[in-house]
Design a protein that fits this description.
Oligomer: single chain
Strand order of the largest sheet: 4-10-9-8-7-5-6
Radius of gyration: 22 Å
Number of domains: 2
Mean pLDDT: 98
CATH architecture of the largest domain: 3-Layer(aba) Sandwich
Strand content: 15-25%
Bound molecules: pyridoxal-5'-phosphate
Number of strands: 17
């Protein structure tokens, strides 16, 4: 059992009114709120030890660097990477995927090669591959999903061949909350010699991820979706693979020596970290992970699962409300529509009731097209949400319906 009152007290933003109504924040898929433990840490960092990392001999720089590099170790342990060299700091999931598309793509993708993505990917896990395919004359293929928003494994098997060089797949769909069968996909991909990138933006904060157990080749996530700062994220890559890939960007920090004749690149992980990174943000991820660990990821999973199941059950009772897909394995997000009411209108009225949900395509236009819709209303949950808030959401939806009736 989680002590929700205590947890909610850790998140100051939750304790406020919007249009005179208690805020109910159900947009955690877009970004999560920050606990005091992270906010205070960031403030303390800037108040006491702020200094650029890696390059200084003075003590503040040493302390900043220590926080940054310790964060790398915390993240390594959190996702069970084999080495901290496999943890690359990026601006976020989007940059992590672009890094792989650019660098891995340069080295490993050739004309006629095939890259597979699922039909429900976030644009971040589609567009970089389209750009790469255009550059290299490779072919992007799409694995369809069924009416329950689940990957059709039979179709995946048909698309998989020795031409497949990479599969880029989300761990959890941000549009529908579907947990993808990545274990199965990774095993099958490796049998034909294909690599797998898992976009963990919607998975890493909800349940245990073990990259060695999964055996994925790349794994990506964003700080702001795991209760840390924005403008920072992580790319995990297998060391052997990262070593073979060329740098993504050139600049300071990613070099050993520079001369006009020849530049020698730094070893991992710095080879991929050109320029001053958001080092405070990186350190904030470690604080967020400490916070998650203090609650326990298994407890979080259990609590959120129960909450989402409750929300599904209650939403289903509302006449004229249609949930898009009922995937067997799902977490954290529910996408739905109200008969005859545009999702934007519903979202705007819910906002007036203090309820923050997301409306639109959720950066997954092809997924919306698959279901022949222009968007959905998405309620996405965190462990600080409650069943009472779900009840308020349902009441809010009934009010929206009444207004339109
Ligand atoms: N992938 C998924 C599944 C997402 O949900 C998101 C953000 O919503 C992204 C990628 C992009 O993340 P960011 O904007 O933090 O780079």
């Amino acid at each position: 059992m989680l002590d929700i009152n205590k947890i909610r007290n850790d998140f100051p933003i939750l304790n406020q009114k919007v249009y005179g109504k208690q805020l109910i924040y159900l947009d955690n898929g877009a970004t999560t709120q920050k606990p005091n433990q992270v906010i205070d840490y960031v403030s303390e960092f800037y108040s006491t030890i702020n200094s650029n990392i890696h390059r200084g001999v003075h003590s503040l720089s040493g302390k900043s660097t220590e926080e940054y590099e310790n964060a790398r170790l915390t993240i390594k342990d959190y996702i069970n990477a084999n080495s901290e060299k496999e943890i690359i700091f990026t601006k976020g999931t989007t940059e992590a995927i672009n890094l792989v598309a650019s660098s891995f793509g340069e080295e490993y993708i050739n004309e006629g090669d095939e890259i597979l993505v699922s039909q429900t990917e976030h644009h971040s896990n589609i567009v970089p591959w389209q750009m790469l395919c255009k550059r290299k004359k490779a072919i992007l293929k799409v694995v369809p999903v069924n009416n329950n928003t689940e990957i059709v494994i039979e179709e995946f098997k048909k698309l998989l061949s020795n031409k497949t060089k990479l599969i880029a797949i989300s761990q959890v769909s941000n549009a529908f909350g579907t947990i993808m069968p990545i274990n199965n996909i990774i095993q099958k991909a490796h049998k034909v010699g294909a690599y797998v990138l898992v976009d963990g933006a919607q998975g890493v904060q909800h349940f245990k991820t073990d990259v060695q157990y999964l055996d994925c080749d790349f794994y990506t996530f964003s700080g702001h979706k795991i209760y840390a700062e924005t403008g920072i994220g992580v790319l995990y890559g297998k060391e052997e693979l990262l070593n073979k890939m060329p740098p993504y960007q050139g600049g300071g920090d990613m070099i050993k020596t520079v001369s006009f004749e020849k530049t020698e690149y730094a070893d991992l992980p710095l080879k991929f970290e050109a320029g001053t990174s958001n080092y405070v943000g990186a350190a904030s991820i470690a604080k967020a992970i400490d916070y998650i660990n203090s609650i326990g990821l298994d407890n979080i999973y259990e609590y959120e699962n129960d909450l989402v199941n409750y929300a599904r059950k209650e939403l289903t009772k509302i006449k004229g409300l249609k949930i898009i897909g009922s995937p067997t394995n799902n977490t954290s997000s529910i996408s739905f529509l109200l008969n005859g009411i545009h999702h934007y209108d519903a979202g705007m009225i819910l906002d007036k009731l203090g309820i923050a949900v997301r409306t639109g395509t959720h950066c997954a236009e092809p997924a919306m097209k698959r279901f022949d819709i222009t968007g959905t209303i998405r309620a996405s949950f965190s462990f600080y949400n409650t069943k009472q808030e779900v009840d308020e959401l349902c009441k809010g939806i009934l009010r929206v319906k009444k207004m339109f009736d």
